[in-house]
Amino acid sequence: MGVLQNKTALVTGGTSGIGLAAARRLAEEGAHVFVTGRSQQRLDEAVAQIGLGATGVVSDVSNFADIDVVVEAIEAHGHELDVVFTNAGGGEFALISDVTVEHYLDTFNRNVGGTLFTVQKVLPLLNRGASIVLAGSTAPSKGMPAFGIYAASKAAVRSLGRTMAAELVDRGIRVNVLVPGPVETPGLTGLAPAGGESELLAEMAASVPMKRVGHVDEIASAVAFLASDASSFMTGSELFVDGGEVQV
Fold first, then answer.
1. C-beta of residue 17 within 8 angstroms of C-beta of residue 43
2. Contact at 8 Å (CB) between 10 and 79?
3. pLDDT surpassing 90 at residue 138
4. CA 224 to CA 217: how far, in whole Å?
5. Which helix (H) or strand (E) holds 188?
6. 29 and 3 in contact (C-beta within 8 Å)?
7. CA distance linking residue 51 with residue 223, whole number of Å
8. Which one from 150, 165, 180, 220 is the annotated catalytic residue?
9. Integer distance in angstroms from the first to the last C-alpha of the chain?
């Protein structure tokens, strides 16, 4: 029996990388998992990998009306929610001198708006004792050139996590922020110029005391921990899974 037997989970941005690994792990632990993604084809492929009755819903969290479609799909299956992992998001490099309005709005809509309105709209579905896991980042803990807007958006997510934890504690709902270090994912390697993926990963590994980048399954294990009763005395916390990147 898994630690999430008979539970229902939602993972946004679950078609690749950390989101896919987390959805797979939650399903292995016994949860029925709803996953979202922007591409039907990639979503179908992800659902096939997750197996165990996973349900895919086409949704773009930066299009806030799409989140209503996710809620409707969960309700149509007769489910309430026990776990929410707001994984969808991302960002691109841009020096402060080069930031455009479009870059700013896209980054904040994905990371802040997507997180805020996903949680807001699933609130009626959350069971007592539910766990919300917000995707954070090590970027706000450092001064990373060309990543200022992304870092600011993730700092906002951290702040929202504290507020949500305070507002939902009386419902027995826990809210924690998971902070991965550099992890080899399509999202990370996609930041590199063509042919520069290995160099980027090597640079990232050099900044980590453990001298390597993380694996998606390591982050998925942390998601499962925060989703389960093993973390029952944690709320409002920020859990770093970063190889010591900003701790040592």
1. no
2. no
3. yes
4. 10
5. helix 186-189
6. yes
7. 18
8. 150
9. 37
> What is the distance between the alpha carbons of residues 114 and 235, in angstroms, rounded to a whole number?
21
- Give the pairing of strands 8-11 and 32-37: parallel
Q: Residue 179: which of 228, 142, 143, 211 has the closest Cα?
A: 142
Q: Which sign does the torsion angle of CA 89, 124, 237, 18 carry?
A: negative
Q: Can you name the residues that pair with 172 across neighbouring β-strands?
A: none
Location of structure tokens 């980054």: 107
Catalytic annotation present for 104: no
Q: Which residues are CB-neighbours of 170 under 8 A, at least 6 positions away?
A: none
Three-state secondary structure of 83-102? EEEECCCCCCCCCHHHCCHH
Q: What b/e string do you get for 16-26 counting C-beta neighbours within 10 Å, with b at 16 or more?
A: bbbbbbbbbbb
Q: With residue 71 as reference, give the H or E element that holds it.
A: helix 64-76
pLDDT band at 191 (very low <50, low <70, confident <90, very high): confident
pLDDT tens-place string over residues 201-224: 888 899 999 999 999 999 999 999
Q: Average pLDDT over the chain, rounded to whole? A: 95
- Decide: pTM greater than 0.85: yes
Contact 85, 22 (CB under 8 A): yes
CA 183, CA 171: separation in Å to the nearest integer?
Answer: 34
